[in-house]
Amino acid sequence: MTFIAAAQSAGAEVWLANLLPIAVIVAIFYFLVIAPANKQRKKTQEMLDSLKKGDRVVTTGGIHGTIQGLENDIVYLKIADNVKIKVARAAIASVIGTES
Q1: Which is it for the CA torsion 33, 34, 35, 37, positive or negative?
Q2: β partners of residue 75
């Protein structure tokens, strides 16, 4: 009887020893990839939510402009005199300042 109990105990230890490296790899992956990506996504969403008229911005396509108007998912940019374009709010890459 004790031989069977010892064999079952050894089997559990081997299973745990095989699972431990996988758990370590998952934890490292989370802290090096997933957590920073979530933090960046949250920062970008806060930036998009705080857009206001008069902010100077750059789009993901590299267009520089000044916000002239905002709707739910649309931003109206003035890119030159008498030239306004309509872009998706998600296309705003960064805010570079406020028009004086």
Answers
A1: positive
A2: 70, 87
Tokens 């960064």 correspond to 94
pLDDT of residue 3: 52
For residue 63, give both structure tokens. Answer: 């267009």
Task: Give the whole-angstrom CA distance, residue 17 versus residue 9.
Answer: 12
Placement of tokens 């002239």 in the chain: 68
Residue 78 CA to residue 83 CA, distance in Å, equals 6
Q: Among all chains, which residue has been given the structure tokens 């758990």?
A: 23
The pLDDT assigned to 4 comes to 54
pTM higher than 0.85 for the full model? Answer: no
CB-based burial label for 77 (10 Å; 0-12, 13-18, 19+) = buried
